[in-house]
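check this one:
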Amino acid sequence: MSDVDSRSASSAAAEVESLLSVLERNRRTFAWKTSGLDEEGMRATTGASAMTLGGLVKHVALVEADWLAVKLAGQAYGRPWDGVDFDADPDWEWRTGALDAPQDVHGLWRDAVERSRELVAEVISERGLDGPASFTWPDGRTPSVRVMLLDMIEEYARHTGHADILREAVDGRVGESAPQDFTF
């Protein structure tokens, strides 16, 4: 391998590490913002929004499946998503997430995250960051693996902001990131 090839490979590995590190930091902060609440806390709303932390956690689990399993890796949605008629109930995850037990909705999200980690590692190994995702936009463009990861980071950033507001309204928890000893 030439020095140029070696630097290029090293640069690509550093970019992968950076992207995955930011995604994991966002996942960890989201987990912290939504953890440790009972049913009442997970069902609480604030302001004019009907959004709940339970619905938000279940929605992000669906986003993990949709963006990373289906659109990035070309896999099926899996359970419970493939059994839902989203045409008949487009807000199913939001509605049912507010009703599910906190441990159930968090378990669903953790399982989705674990599946995504495995699939992303496989896709990056096979295609690299510049390789194609497994779907095409309606205008004919196919996003790269990099674009899909950046979109997922953006999705977490947006929804962690929602969780910030909801969690502060529930019990006053504030902060930009999880404490060092927090695990999910």
Notes: The two ends are 40 Å apart (CA to CA). Residues 3-34 form the longest helix (32 residues). The mean pLDDT is 93. Residues 110 and 126 are 24 Å apart (CA to CA).
